Amino acid sequence: MIYNSMLSKHTVSVIMLAYNHEKYIQDAIKSIIAQTYKNIELIIIDDGSKDSTYKKILEMESDCKNRFVRTIFKTQNNVGTSTTLNRLVALTEGQYIYIIASDDIAAPDAIETEVLFLDRNPDYGLVVGDNAIIDSESNRIYYGSNGEFVYTEKDVKYKTFGEFLQAQVPYVNFCSKEFGSYESFCRTNYVPNGYLIRKIIFNGKDLFSINAPLEDWWLMLQISKYWKMKYINKILFYYRQHSSNTINQREKIDSYVLKTFEYEKKCVLSKSIDKLQ
After folding, report:
1. Global pTM exceeds 0.85
2. Which of 68, 74, 171, 226 is paired with 148 by a 20 to 30 Å CA distance?
3. CA 274 to each of CA 39, 140, 157, 201: distance values in angstroms, whole numbers, following the listed order
4. Which domains, from first to last, does the chain contain?
């Protein structure tokens, strides 16, 4: 049975933070235009790009206004990821929020598949699918035996980003109810890209913090305290790997991990003290 997305009354707010992605931004936008789910608003903030990213965004404005129930494009002086994400969330009017980076691509049925799950499972706060990996030219790539990128399947160790992440956390079965527990996130983040979240989780507050520079991990830690999460073993997203990915900057990532987890411990301790008083 094919799910009819017109039956869902929920608006999905797609938010996109754009920064120096003039080469990729239009492909990211086109992937949202091509979604089989119809009831979508698209909100993009360009965080002070130094290239022609915002010009590329504006070139898509007419197509976006014809496709989406609501379209907002903004540009600003650079203020960083956390502040911009909070501003994006504050602009949303939908019941669900879908976050996509301005250099990635969503599969055509991504939002419809994830809306279907959350519509049917009110105790879940987040749902995500597997990620295929693509290079700077949008070619499909894979992980080799030493973690390198390869183009031929005969050299493949992990075909998808989900398979790679699963191998890093063997103590969590992605296809079980273990996926998304707070205890497991205290060790590391392992959620792929392209997730759909219930707007109510944000509860009108700025959930992202400059004190937690690994924004995705911080978000997972907060959601997992109160909600279940679901992993769908199907490619719903195309995660682009290129030289400017933060994930390739090991020293920077290590410092972000430490800072984010220290802030999480501080927040948990503060709440524990408040309960005792």
Report:
1. yes
2. 171
3. 41, 50, 48, 21
4. 9-276 (3.90.550.10)
